[in-house]
Amino acid sequence: MERDDRGVAVTGMGMVTPAGADERTFWEGLCSGVSTARHCDELAGLPVDFACRADGIDLDETVGGRSVWRMARFVKMALVAARRAVADAGLSPERWDGTRVGVVLGVGVGGVAVLADNVRRLDDDGPEAVSPLLVPMMMPNAAAGELAIALRAYGPSLAPATACASGATAIAVARDLLASGQCDVVVAGGAESVVTPLVVSAFAGMGALSRRTGDPAGASRPFAADRDGFVIGEGAAVLVLERAPDARARGVRARALLTGAGSSTDAHHPTAPSPDGAGARRAVCAALRSAGWAADEIDHINAHGTSTRLNDAMESELISTVFPHRPTVTAPKGVLGHTLAAGGAIEAVATVLTLERGLVPPVANLDALPEGFGLDCVVKEPRAQDVERALSHSFGFGGHNVVLAFQRACTERPMRVHHGGLPPVS
Asked: Hey, which of 36, 94, 115, 368 has its CA 20 to 30 A from 152?
């Protein structure tokens, strides 16, 4: 394996997901192949009354500090994930040069629950009842801004919104910030929390959600013949990225290398993917060119795999055509649901863990592929595999396509040095 001088090093990761808010629990949940979907009280009475909630952590207590009240749920998730990622990287905002640290946090919607609550206040009690914090709490860039404050990061602070590709877009942008020399460290990922009656009703109305209300745990079934839509989820994931030589110089081994990234746009339809997969294929090919890899060098693909009929058919055809050597395929949304803007970042974390651990998680609820789906999907149990190169696909409404190319680090990961986490926000 070549040395890691070309790539960007992933030196830290943190997450808040329906499968867990720490790395061990998250990985065990993903490898179990058991869906986290369940009925939700706040969705009772709706045509779709289930979702994948990230309820395994007390966000207010974990965030702490006097300012937690001003943060929407997606911001709290992002902050928890970012703190843990920075600690995992052996870094501390008290020690770094914050002018060389960037934050890129993809969010698709923002604080929609806060918005909906204030619309009710306006209707019921008039304009004086609307919170003056509505705008800063609902705006999608609130997470990037709060992370910059908490992490004392004074470099670029960006909030890309490319729908379900937002988390992956953030990681690709972070790579560019490092390559251009604008930053030495970038904290990048995605966050989303829109499990609300308003958003769920909207997705259900457009036919995007599974209607398996009698079997929530069996509803998200990527690539299955009887798939009928996605299950909405929530969460956040953050990666700490540095130039590989810089990480090595400070004595930290990369958990994996982000060797390439590719983006494209379908320019086809507001929500449906281009049926021929041409846009997604351009993103895949761009990622391969960026990494300097041939298609037959890919060992594994972390698929977007939403469990919708159109997306899975398009992606299956794409993978079968570009990768006829049949790399292994997994699709975490079977376990986690579709966490929207957070999905690309959470699945990037899953891809890094596959590279590190030599284990591919199974696709939940997949018993048999439809006729014509020529994929090597891992099913039932995790599969041991020596994965050296992997792609992570993210495709979003609006035709946004982002593909990240990850490579296994070439030596064993050293013992990591932690600095006891970060102080609570003020």
From this structure: 115
From 164, 183, 377, 400, active-site residue: 164
Residue written as token pair 């207010």: 60
Once rounded to an integer, what is the mean pLDDT over residues 91-105? 96
Q: Rounded to the nearest 5°, which phi and psi values hold at 270? A: -60, -30
Which pLDDT value is given to residue 1? Answer: 41
pLDDT tens for 6-20 read 689 999 999 999 999
By the 8 A CB rule, do 404 and 274 touch?
no
**In the annotation, is 31 catalytic?**
no
Q: Give yes or no for a contact between 24 and 56, defined as CB atoms under 8 angstroms apart.
A: no
* Catalytically annotated residue among 31, 40, 52, 338: 338
Indicate the residue type of 355. Answer: L
- State residue 3's pLDDT score: 44
Spatial CA neighbour of 173 closest among 368, 395, 162, 4: 162
What's the pTM? 0.94
390 contacts: CB under 8 Å, gap ≥ 6: 298, 299, 300, 301, 302, 351, 354, 355, 405, 406, 407
